[in-house]
Amino acid sequence: MIEVSNLTKRYRGGTAVDDLTFTVEPGRVTGFLGPNGAGKSTTIRLILGLDRPTSGSAMIGGRPYGSIERPLTAVGALLEAGDLHPTRTVREHLRWLARSNGIGERRIGEVLEATGMSGAARKRAKTLSLGMKQRLGVAAALLGDPGVLVLDEPVNGLDPEGVVWIRTLMKRMAAEGRTVLVSSHLMAEMALTAEHLIVIGRGRLLADVPTEAFVASHSGASLEEAFMRLTSESVEFRAGGAR
Amino acid sequence: MSAFANAASAEWVKLRSVRSTAVTLSVFAALALGFGWLIGGSVEDAFYNGDTLSATFMGLLVAQLVLVTFAVSSVGSEYSTGTIKAALAAVPSRGRLFAAKMAAVGAAVAAAVLPVELAAFAIVQSRAGAGAVPWTAWETVESLLGGWISMTLLCVFAAAIAVMTRSTVWTLAILLPILFLSGQGLGNLDPIRPVVQYFPDQVGMVVMHMTIPGDPQFGRDYGAWTGIAILVAWTAAALAGGWFAMRRRDA
Hints:
Chain B: This is ABC-type transport system involved in multi-copper enzyme maturation, permease component. Chain A is built from 8 helices and 10 strands. Chain A is α/β, with parallel strands linked by helices. Chain A starts with a strand and ends in a 12-residue tail after the last helix. The model of chain A has no long low-confidence stretch (mean pLDDT 91). By secondary structure, chain B is mostly helical. In chain B, 76% of the residues lie in helices and 0% in strands.
């Protein structure tokens, strides 16, 4: 379970996350939506202890991320899939992560298998396609067999088969009782994957509802239309004609 | 294994698994041994006056630049590639991650320097003929030990600076001119020598037997072991700065 309470992050230039409160429950896939610049990635960084909040807190299973011993065994995260050293191989990338949390060597083979990356284990990161980098990112997230998964835009760069694969994976993880938070701006994908939605705009909470109820409350429009209506006030960047 | 041992082990895998480590450390060895061979042929010249230790360290001082580049880029690449985020997610204790990183860089440099230094000295000795000095003479042991310690400390110093700047380019842009080029020339100018002689590279030269106390032009106000103490102070200051920077900033 992830509990975000009155979370706020201010930078010199402005406020990225503004008094955000929500809970991500286990056992279902929770979609984390918002227009570009809404604060999704900042919120995820705050949850993972990468940035420090100006005020408020983010707890995982009742504890701040930073106080969890061997955190990869509790929380698996996929951030920027491209954050890899270009000359390090797939296996060595997973190996240093495993070592850092005292995870056994055998588990590396298992996550490579689970993500279809076994054949690419000896490839250097710079030779991987974006889709393969995403798969490696998912493999890294699964390494510690965590009860909480946080995935930032995991379907970016995946081919249709990959999209189906990650959708199935997330649903299976949730069905196993894990907490799954997935951010995306692909509405059609979220409509298929997420049972629950958290929508933010300009750092503020706009909606925290089951996907079905969200669509229904916007008079049966598609999720995409419902999202556009809800966030129309908080879109920061828009092509000239649309205003 | 303890949490620190896990973190250090991960940092060790990181160092080992990138191509630049093998490349830079090989270039370091090739330069040090190559210079040793070349300079070893002229140990009898007036410049070295038969001093095989000076001849050995002349090559190592040049090769040291490559070693510093290795130490700095091993830290800088973590920021430029973005793997620092994964590293902090895996080891959220900033102090622990920083300590593990410095320990891994220091261990890698120490492991590379010792055999290269001994081999370079052996090459110079074999080329020096009658000029060869006994391996067991205290001056020999002291200089080789001092060289090993000072090159390792200098690399940890540079790696800690890289944590503060978070950039390979910036760190090298600051360190190379100040510490390695102007320092070696400017350290001999009387008006600024009282200050510049305490810069890390100058200290390294004293420790590595490149200057002899009392020499009118190259002499410094301190000896080899005081020099090591000064280097320890420099390294400690850089480590404190790096630790503070890592704790304070967002990833």
